[in-house]
Model the fold of this input.
Amino acid sequence: MAVSTKAEILKAIRNSKDYISGQEICDKLGVSRTAVWKVIKQLQAEGYDIEAVTNKGYCLLSYPDILSSSELMSRINTKWAGQRVYYHKETESTNDDARYLAEEGMEHGSLVVADHQTAGKGRRGREWVSPPGEAIYMSLLLRPDFSPERASMLTLLMGISVAEVISGLYKDLKVNIKWPNDVLVQDRKVCGILTEMSAEPDYIHHVVIGVGINVNQTYFPPEVADVATSLRLCQGEMIDRAQIIVAVMEYFEYYYGIFAERGDVSDFVHIYDSYLINRGREVKVLDPKGEYTGVAEGINDKGELIINKSDGTAVTVASGEVSVRGIYGYV
Ligand code: BTN
Done:
């Protein structure tokens, strides 16, 4: 059974307000009663609480925290972002998987999702600790038709998308972005983004945006325990990971559309700056040509951070070229 048919059957049951009969599903999707029955059995075995009642049909009684291609594809409401999902129960790194898929010609918007990464990668060669069953590890494959120097702005689009999703779902939480791309909740890191690109000097082959979101963890290893948190710890409840993935894809597609038309981030500088934790704060710029301090003002249309130095001059710094640290602690 193709993943998309399974996803369609799941979608039909999910979207039905009441019981939906096997016949109705068959008529809607043009599949046999036996095929529907087989999918229902598979879904029940995967953990879906689907009630089957004679003469009434099927009803999904609860929404378990299941990540699978069928689950995600039955819920994603986009034109292209995440329309094709490659799910792994366990993998080394979804960024590497997305790169392999790119090399095999997979289309723009394909999404790799894993429940567990055994060699998750962070920025600057660091490890991204990726335990099973608790968090989101996903990588979105893009094939942009703009020049490579614009690609770093894609990371900012993903940062805003994640921030918008979290602040939209959990209105009481303090959500910020630490330039260029850490999303913080209650001043601790909840999401990291690793963007990798394959390009010629004037042509992008593909870009992979890897996103790690701490969703249901209650434990962090000592090396990150002071700076990391999870949505569950902040919100005090278990969170449905698929809901977050779906919403991030929807926001990202929206922002990407505006960005691709404009060629820069000018249309959402104000939104980005409203989340920017560094804004108005003193930061230290670890420039390979020499460190300096200044006060971060916001980003410009190219997504660069504007810094007012103590000598009165303003400079802009591009992500990837320098690292910016808060003077006092993590933020
Ligand atoms: C950071 O250092 O803040 C970036 C972390 C990025 C982690 C994500 S998890 C999904 C994707 N696969 C990886 O190996 N890394 C990224």
Notes: Residues 69-274 form a domain with the BirA Bifunctional Protein; domain 2 fold (CATH 3.30.930.10). The longest helix spans residues 241-262. Residues 173 and 186 are 7 Å apart (CA to CA).
